[in-house]
Amino acid sequence: MPSSLSVPEFLNHPGVVVDVRSPGEFNQGHLPGAVNLPLFSDGERAEVGTCYKQVGPEAAMDLGLRLVGPKLGDWVAQARHLSSGTPLRIHCWRGGMRSQSLGGLLETLGFAVVVLHGGYKAYRAQVRRVLAEPRSIRMVGGMTGTGKTEVLLALASLGEQVLDLEGLANHRGSSYGNLGLPPQPTTEQYENEIAAQWVQFEAQRPLWIEAESRQVGTCRIPPEVFEQMEAAPVWELLRDRADRVALLARVYGEADRSGLLTATERIRKRLGGLRTQQALDHIAEDDLEPAIALVLDYYDQTYRYDLDRRSVPRYPVEVTGRSALEAAQMLQQAASQSCPGA
């Protein structure tokens, strides 16, 4: 039988990660970088599960063998293509029948194989432990349009540790946040992706994160991480209104106009009927800057409310007219002055 490895051993072992769970299980959440090579379809998995509950494990095993048998040759061929001479790291939900049986078969065929002890369930428990590990967080704050994300990425280019929560969520964190971006992951997968980066960050070095609410679009920031963010000091980017409007016009200038109209309609109740209609008219006329200026009134109020409720150190950094790289360098300097030796 193939070696059964703990989660850390499995993650550090060389080779392709092969997730043999059904497509539905995989889409809900999986190890970052894993390849789905399902043993059962979603329907077949449900059928076997029902048989297990209603008849028993032996009958479920027999049904599973009947379902898998005709397609086993194709499955092995796909595994061989994935392997290309490198080891395969196989896992299922609990590290039981699916991964052990397939791992044993592949081993007899000459593959180098390891399996994950406890399966994906054990991995998810490890994710929770990893996310609870403390980090030395520094928050990048600022009103909508101050270029927080661009500055965060510039900090990364300067060698700083950075966690891009919006990038991992495929969302910019507002009603307009998903325009022009790929579909969002599930919250479960979002946690997996964050944990994969979190474990790599050095605990004693600063970790820069953009100030966010609990939700980034449909993705929920892990509570273990959000609690640390809430207690962290904030370096607040300041730009004048004209600078912010121009920056947002650049970001959303290529966005689909129907998407902009829909996103503006979503905040009608909070923006007000008159302002909403004025913004919609400007967008329809392809005149974005006045529309953005109207919408900023709502987002500025929301930002001030969120900032005022927090009792953490706040350090303003004036970056009007500065590029993202220049602003990042100013943040580094401000942080070194506020936290000498950190």
Estimated share of beta-strand residues? 5-15%
- Mean of residue pLDDT values: 91
**Coarse shape:** elongated
Largest sheet: 5 strands, parallel
User: Numbering strands along the chain, what is their spatial order in the largest sheet?
Assistant: 1-5-4-2-3
Instruction: Write the H/E string, N to C.
Output: EHEHEHHHEHEHEHEHHEEEHEHHHHHEH
Distance between the termini: 50 Å
Tell me the number of strands: 12
Oligomer: single chain
> What's the tally of helices?
17
- Specify Rg, calculated over alpha carbons: 25 Å
Fraction in helix = 40-55%
List low-pLDDT spans. Answer: none
Task: Give a verbal description of the structure.
Helix 6 (97-108) links the parallel strand 4 (88-91) and strand 5 (113-116). The chain is built from 17 helices and twelve strands. Strands 1-5-4-2-3 form a five-stranded parallel sheet. It is α/β, with parallel strands linked by helices.
In short:
The protein has 342 residues and is α/β, with parallel strands linked by helices. Helix content is 54%, strand content 13%.
